[in-house]
Amino acid sequence: MTSYMLFYLMIVIFVLLNVLDAHSTLKVISRTSYKNERNPVARLLFKLLGPLSGVIILKLIIIPVIFLMFYLFTFGTYDMNIVLVIANVFYLAVVFHNYNVVRRIDKFRSKLDEYDLPDDDSGKS
Predict the structure, then answer these.
(1) What one-character-per-residue DSSP string does 22-72 give?
(2) Percent of all residues in the chain with a pLDDT value above 70, rounded to a whole number
(3) Nearest in space to 65 (alpha carbons), one of 25, 20, 18, 26
(4) How many domains, in total, are found in the chain?
(5) In the predicted model, is pLDDT for residue 122 greater than 60?
(6) Lower CB count within 10 Å: N or C terminus of the chain?
(7) What is the pLDDT of residues 28-58, one digit of tens each?
(8) pTM for this prediction
(9) 20 part of a folded domain
């Protein structure tokens, strides 16, 4: 595989992982709160703009970064490929973590649903 083919493959994977990161982040936030976001910039955007708008703004930042990657690739193909592999491993870990959080939340909620809890009025008339 040539450096160019590897670069284009890594760019495609990078974009896909960012889409999955956005999706998984929205799933976690929709089940809990924006306060569970560990990235302070993202947390502030979610608080100010809401989850969907915040994720869109964060992911729009990736577009100029991708153009910068193409530009830097012309100077050092090997270096840029290494940077992309590291970035993809990082995003892969983030995506797996987010989907595991969603799975644990859903599992916890299903266990709560198994119990027949009384209504909030606790039998008061």
Answers:
(1) HHHHHHHHHHS-GGG---HHHHHHHHHH-HHHHHHHHHHTHHHHHHHHHHH
(2) 92
(3) 18
(4) 1
(5) no
(6) C
(7) 998 888 888 888 999 999 999 999 999 999 9
(8) 0.82
(9) yes
Torsion over CA: 37, 89, 74, 4 (sign): negative
Token pair listed for 94: 């983030």
User: Is 120 within a domain?
Assistant: no
| Residue-number span of the structural domain to which 13 is assigned | 3-112
Residues 6+ apart with CB under 8 A from 55: 22, 25, 26, 46
Alpha-carbon gap, residue 50 to 121, rounded angstroms: 32
- Within a domain: residue 57? yes
